[in-house]
Amino acid sequence: MIVSDDTLLPPRYVVENYKKAYLVINGKEPSIRYVGNQWYSVNGETVHRVTLLEEIARLRELSNKQSLQQTPKSVIQRLISRLKAL
What we know:
- The chain has 86 residues and is of the alpha+beta class.
- The protein has one domain (11-85).
- 57% of the residues lie in helices and 15% in strands.
- A three-stranded antiparallel β-sheet has the order 1-2-3.
- Strand 2 and strand 3 form a beta hairpin.
- Helix 1 (11-26) packs parallel to helix 2.
- The termini are far apart.
- 7% of the residues are buried.
């Protein structure tokens, strides 16, 4: 699910998406709860919904970068590396 800046988006979706994104990057679940009036408590810090949505996007982008760096080299890239080593 993609979290967008939609004021009708229920807080539980924002919480779930933040937990998933945070878990992928940090390896543990954050402490997060909806306080009310578009404010959330995240790891003891009060954060507005817009800031939280931006953080979700940042964590997802970081996750995508990490997954691209961890992908194994293709056969052609390995062959080129071997030829360069000769």
